Known about the structure:
Layout: E1 8-10, E2 32-34, E3 41-43, E4 56-58, E5 63-65, E6 80-82, E7 104-106, E8 113-114, E9 128-130, E10 135-139, E11 152-154, E12 159-162, E13 176-178, E14 183-186, E15 200-202, E16 207-210, E17 224-226, E18 231-235, E19 248-250, E20 255-258, H1 262-265, E21 272-274, E22 279-283, E23 296-298, E24 303-307, E25 320-322, E26 327-331, E27 344-346, E28 351-353, E29 368-370, E30 377-378, E31 392-394, E32 399-403, E33 416-418, E34 423-425, E35 440-442, E36 449-450, E37 464-466, E38 471-475, E39 488-490, E40 495-499, H2 504-507, E41 519-521, H3 534-579, H4 599-609, E42 618-621, E43 625-631, E44 637-643, H5 645-648, H6 654-665, E45 675-680, E46 685-690, H7 697-701, H8 704-709, H9 712-732, E47 747-749, E48 755-757, H10 762-766
Amino acid sequence: xxxxxxxxxxxxxxxxxxxxxxxxxxxxxxxxxxxxxxxxxxxxxxxxxxxxxxxxxxxxxxxxxxxxxxxxxxxxxxxxxxxxxxxxxxxxxxxxxxxxxxxxxxxxxxxxxxxxxxxxxxxxxxxxxxxxxxxxxxxxxxxxxxxxxxxxxxxxxxxxxxxxxxxxxxxxxxxxxxxxxxxxxxxxxxxxxxxxxxxxxxxxxxxxxxxxxxxxxxxxxxxxxxxxxxxxxxxxxxxxxxxxxxxxxxxxxxxxxxxxxxxxxxxxxxxxxxxxxxxxxxxxxxxxxxxxxxxxxxxxxxxxxxxxxxxxxxxxxxxxxxxxxxxxxxxxxxxxxxxxxxxxxxxxxxxxxxxxxxxxxxxxxxxxxxxxxxxxxxxxxxxxxxxxxxxxxxxxxxxxxxxxxxxxxxxxxxxxxxxxxxxxxxxxxxxxxxxxxxxxxxxxxxxxxxxxxxxxxxxxxxxxxxxxxxxxxxxxxxxxxxxxxxxxxxxxxxxxxxxxxxxxxxxxxxxxxxxxxxxxxxxxxxxxxxxxxxxxxxxxxxxxxxxxxxxxxxxxxxxxxxxxxxxxxxxxxxxxxxxxxxxxxxxxxxxxxxxxxxxxxxxxxxxxxxxxxxxxxxxxxxxxxxxxxxxxxxxxxxxxxxxxxxxxxxxxxxxxxxxxxxxxxxxxxxxxxxxxxxxxxxxxxxxxxxxxxxxxxxxxxxxxxxxxxxxxxxxxxxxxxxxxxxxxxxxxxxxxxxxxxxxxxxxxxxxxxxxxxxxxxxxxxxxxxxxxxxxxxxxxxxxxxxx
Length: 787
């Protein structure tokens, strides 16, 4: 290079590829080097340590591999070091402690392992330390407390164990502290409550226990507090909102008990409140105040009682209103219809009475309304048709009566409709057949009569159908043969007769799902075959002769047509093959655009690593594709799901698909398998995931030797990890993602038997036209019991 006098070099956010050249070390006068946001691969050259005048170094958002070079310790003038969002591995070198001028250190989103080096305590000028989303382990070093200039500390998404060091309380200038998604245990050290500058404290998704002391009131600047998914006990401290600026309080899934603190009732600054999954009690009418800025509230799975007061209509900014599984009584206030920003209402499993207020029809943004397992009566208001965004309607297990309103057919986005265990009468309205996106329909345990409308056969997305325990009569409509997506069906305890439809769902149905009818027949367990009437046999023999006379003249013409079509097909295949040559790869969709990979290079690497998807590398197979283990040239191991050809043909809207991959690739939780990206090519299309060492839960529990090693403590930890992952998908993703495919095959275990949920978005990506999967994702053709 001939630029030895160069002082600043900024090549960030281009599409540069290849390796960073060793000759970079010749730029001895360089003070600023920005190469972030490219597609650089390979390792960081040791020669980087020759740039002793360097003040700012940004290599973030590339595909760099290997370890952080020890020569980095020579850059003693560095004030800023950005290496985040690469594939850097190995441990953080002790030499990092030589960078005593360092002000910001960002290493998040890599695969760094080992412990935080003790030398980190030498970085006394550090204001930001971000180690988020790595695989760092061991105890959090006491030396962290020496970094008294720190303003931001993020150690989330690692595998740190042990207690939070007491020395952390020395960080009196800290504004933000994130320790979420680790395996920390013990109690919160009292020294934390002396960090009076804190605005954000995130301790969720650990194994922390004990009480939250009243000293929390000393954090008067606290705006966000997350203690969810731990084992905290006792009461919520009275001083929890003592500073009056708390905006986000999340204490879900702990063992908190007692009543709501008065400071929380008067905490008008609240935007988001999650108290779900505890043992809290109190009168819901009296214990909560007016929160003008509140946009999310979840009080589910507690012991709250009392009635829903009219004041809930004053929360004009709320998008999610969840109070399920409590002891709330009284009527649903009509004033809820004024909360026009509402997207989700969940009042399941309470003691609510009265009718469903028609005013709810004004909630144009509402996509989920679940009021099941209450004591509601009366009819479903016809205003239900105004809920144009509705995807989930669950009114099961109430005392609703009258006819099912035909206006439901105007809720064209419905995915789930559950009206089971009520007192609905008359016939099933034919308008239900207009709900072309419907996947789950449950009308069981009602008083429905007459024949099933043939229009139900138009529900080609339907996966589950339950009309059992009614008084339906007549034949099953012939149109049901078109319900090819159907996997679960139950028509038992009716007055149906005649043949069952010739589709897999009915053939595979258990006898329990078909029993107690007036005489249905067909190819299914416990049913008699459908015999032809005697008269039809004679007609059939005569008709055979007629068929032969008609068929012979047509056969010659048919053969000619087949020859012509075959010739056209061969010519078209040759044209396709020419287009799919590797030299024409630029016509493929943008490969690996999500994480900035060099798509062509990684495609070739994966093909080579799997010997073009040789079965020797196969580690599993599912409905959407076959999974292979691939060891990359960097020695990083990934799992590659090669999609079946039938699935890749559905990717008509690649940009929409790419956005879905981007959303899923950015999901970060210690119990969710990371997606690295997607590759599309004329010959192969595949998804690339983090490789999880022990494989599926099913594999372990079906192996006698491994099942013995997999003791009850490990099993309980797996259940907790799965719950944490699902809670994250349901509550922390916006809009929420519902897996709907939880099986033992989709729960993977790492070397430490930590649960990792996989395949939570595959169906959504591969079926973009099946509706808004973001709010209700799952595998086409299967509804998991855990949904």
